[in-house]
Design a protein that fits this description.
single chain; about 475 residues; alpha/beta; Rossmann fold; GMP Synthetase, Chain A, domain 3; five-stranded mixed β-sheet
């Protein structure tokens, strides 16, 4: 157990507000907000919920249209004992209504309704705030292959042990600062909040949406969560992470360019790749990347987690961060088999004692009797210096059944299809080289946490039909 973590049955924010009230909890658009001040904001937020009639064990749906408001509501719900249910405000209205019905939400709030005063001086807090660590804390929507998102049910204890495991690879202490760069309806965003409030560290929130390179030059951010595309853009802008004060970069999204990773390491910054999922409260594995033939590793297994590879190659996981289950129509349905393993749907292998995720079981397709994992081809494309992002989908073929087609985002100019295929020949088997290599559509060039593979499959189908 880490000495600076609060006991597992106390509100971590109150714990640190009592012991180090003047420590900085939030860096909010260059305003420094202490733990004591943040504690006062959360208390007023809890009182707001009580005035609205929200009580313990009820489910509160929260449209996450304000970052600060969402942080405050997540911690106020923990204290009140109600269940925090963040929702992506970009969901279509019909999907929002159906999801709220599925999770039995008693009320819907926009986090922008929460008000806070940057200049307010909070009162000293003297008593701790006891919470129920094993009770349902939040429901996090995860996108399935189709239809309504599943509601993943987590307790405070799940998040607590998730943060402890993360600390083993990305140590976080008072004075450190993690940029809250991931959305708070996503488990990755909530995990940053939990890691910071449990460690007594600082969350950096940029509500003004400044360019990331400018933000890094203005703020001393020590920990940064990025995807490969963001890393590429920042390096192209000439950002020196070490000089900006960054010590750790956590690279998510399952893809990494060896050229970019090498540039960061040469700056003297620790870059770690990671494998995680909503059901495990974020990270399962984290470590320094090793580049194998078919892709990049995702590190070794973090404390409080276990991994087993089934005969099929499917990755099975279990441990203290594992969710209570899926919430549906009033009950929490188990997500594990008889031995307590959660079947991730991801396929992987071990490479030098690190996990290498080779693809999704349901993304695999067969071409002329050979198995093709799109992720392997995507990772090979990313080793080419001009390619920033790549997505591979299946296209119908009379001769082979299905063939791979790639969509790539490049730095500048047009895709040189023949030259790209020629260079791939030395990296992957010939039957895996895409028949066609097409440019990314312009509207898909903004980095997301995960590739929207369904969008590209539909785009390719319409391309053929058109």
């Amino acid at each position: 157990m880490n000495h600076h973590f609060p006991p597992g049955n106390e509100c971590p924010l109150r714990y640190h507000a009592q012991r180090m009230p003047d420590a900085i909890a939030l860096l909010l658009d260059q305003h420094l907000i202490s733990y004591q001040q943040l504690d006062g904001w959360v208390e007023r937020c809890r009182e707001l919920l009580q005035r609205k009639g929200v009580t313990a064990d009820q489910h509160l749906a929260v449209m996450t249209d304000s970052i600060v408001g969402t942080v405050l509501l997540s911690l106020a719900c923990l204290r009140l004992g109600c269940v925090f249910c963040p929702i992506n405000p970009a969901f279509p209205d019909e999907q929002k209504r159906a999801y709220c019905k599925n999770i039995d939400a008693v009320a819907v709030m926009h986090s922008s309704e929460v008000v806070f005063d940057v200049g307010h001086v909070a009162e000293t807090v003297n008593h701790s705030f006891i919470i129920h660590p094993d009770a349902l804390m939040n429901l996090i929507a995860t996108s399935g292959t189709s239809g309504l998102p599943k509601a993943v049910a987590h307790s405070y204890s799940n998040h607590y042990f998730s943060a402890i495991g993360s600390h083993s690879k990305t140590p976080l202490f008072q004075g450190d600062c993690w940029l809250l760069s991931l959305p708070l309806y996503h488990v990755g965003g909530l995990a940053i909040v939990m890691r910071c409030v449990m460690s007594g560290a600082t969350m950096a929130i940029d509500s003004e949406k400044k360019p990331l390179n400018r933000l890094l030059s203005m703020s001393r951010i020590s920990h940064l969560s990025l995807v490969n595309t963001q890393l590429y853009r920042l390096l192209k802008m000439g950002v020196n992470f070490y000089k900006a004060g960054v010590r750790y970069i956590l690279l998510g999204g399952g893809m990494a360019s060896p050229v970019l990773v090498d540039q960061v390491l040469k700056q003297g910054v620790t870059l770690l790749t990671t494998y995680g999922m909503t059901e495990m409260g974020s990270q399962v594995c984290t470590g320094k990347p090793l580049f194998a033939e078919a892709g990049v590793t995702s590190g070794d297994v973090l404390p409080e987690r276990e991994i087993c590879l089934a005969e099929s190659g499917e990755i099975l996981v279990r441990g203290k961060p594992l969710a209570l289950g899926y919430y549906r129509n009033g009950i929490i349905e188990s997500v594990v088999d008889d031995q307590g393993w959660y079947h991730s749907g991801d396929k992987g292998c071990w490479f030098q004692e690190q996990l290498q995720v080779t693809g999704r079981m349901d993304n695999l397709f067969i071409s002329g009797g050979e198995n093709i994992h799109p992720e392997e081809i995507e990772q090979a494309l990313l080793t080419l210096p001009e390619i920033i992002q790549a997505v591979v989908v299946a296209e119908f073929s009379e001769e082979f059944g299905q063939r791979p087609v790639a969509y790539v985002q490049i730095d500048e100019g047009d895709v040189d299809e023949a030259f790209t295929k020629k260079r791939l020949a030395g990296k992957i088997a010939r039957f895996k080289i895409p028949d066609r290599i097409r440019p990314f559509p312009h509207k898909m060039t903004q980095p997301g946490i995960k590739v929207n593979r369904r969008f590209f499959q539909q785009l390719n189908d319409s391309w053929i039909a058109g």
